[in-house]
Design goal:
Length: 212
């Protein structure tokens, strides 16, 4: 699985064969077939790793709920670090969104069902619940405006994915150092904080400015 993750990160989801995995490990391809019937099975297994680790995101201590803004920034920083540590998961996420049905549906299969179902039950439900509770705590404290936690997740997830692959692919850079993650963390926080605190939409702001 580690070899598969490395190849996905370097060559893309479809840019490797089982032989590419077998050769560095010093085994023959038939040895892999004893455990996995095809490359798709390998990709689904990697996706299961992804979903298991993703389900642990947005964790914070009980006292963190009393400081929602600070806590939100901390969990988003760790969200960035998670994706930098596992660039293969970024590529799998993008592939899974490539068609209406989701590419080969690697992540959906690994999650055990459609993403919408995972909002309420399933492997990712606890992650979404933690984020929802944190957003709602910020609203009760008067620090955040009313927003849906799902919409917030859409904003930060899409922003992060595109930052990591466009216009330069940062995934194959030296992503372990703080120099690589720091600007991404700062940019994501700027977007996230504006989204949860803005009192009016950009469209309304622009219209009001035009009237004045």
């Amino acid at each position: 699985m580690d070899a598969a993750e490395h190849l996905i990160a370097q060559n893309g989801v479809y840019g490797f064969t089982l032989k590419d995995i077998a050769d560095p490990l010093g085994v023959q391809v038939p040895a892999i077939y004893k455990h996995y019937e095809s490359r798709d099975d390998v990709l689904i297994e990697v996706s299961k790793r992804f979903v298991a680790l993703l389900s642990q995101q947005f964790q914070y201590p009980p006292e963190g709920i009393s400081q929602p803004t600070t806590t939100l920034r901390e969990v988003l920083d760790r969200f960035v670090e998670f994706h930098f540590r596992h660039p293969a998961y970024v590529r799998l996420s993008l592939t899974d969104l490539a068609t209406p049905q989701g590419g080969m549906e690697y992540v959906r299969l690994a999650a055990g069902g459609p993403f919408r179902e995972n909002l309420r039950e399933g492997l990712l439900a606890a992650m979404h619940r933690r984020l929802k509770e944190l957003i709602e705590a910020g609203q009760k404290a008067g620090e955040f405006r009313p927003v849906l936690a799902l919409n917030f997740y859409r904003v930060v997830k899409s922003t992060l994915l595109i930052q990591l692959v466009f216009p330069d692919d940062l995934l194959v850079a030296d992503a372990q150092g703080s120099g690589a993650t720091r600007p991404i963390k700062a940019f994501l926080w700027d977007v996230a904080y504006h989204y949860v605190t803005a009192t009016r939409s950009p469209a309304k702001t622009g219209k009001a400015a035009a009237i004045r």
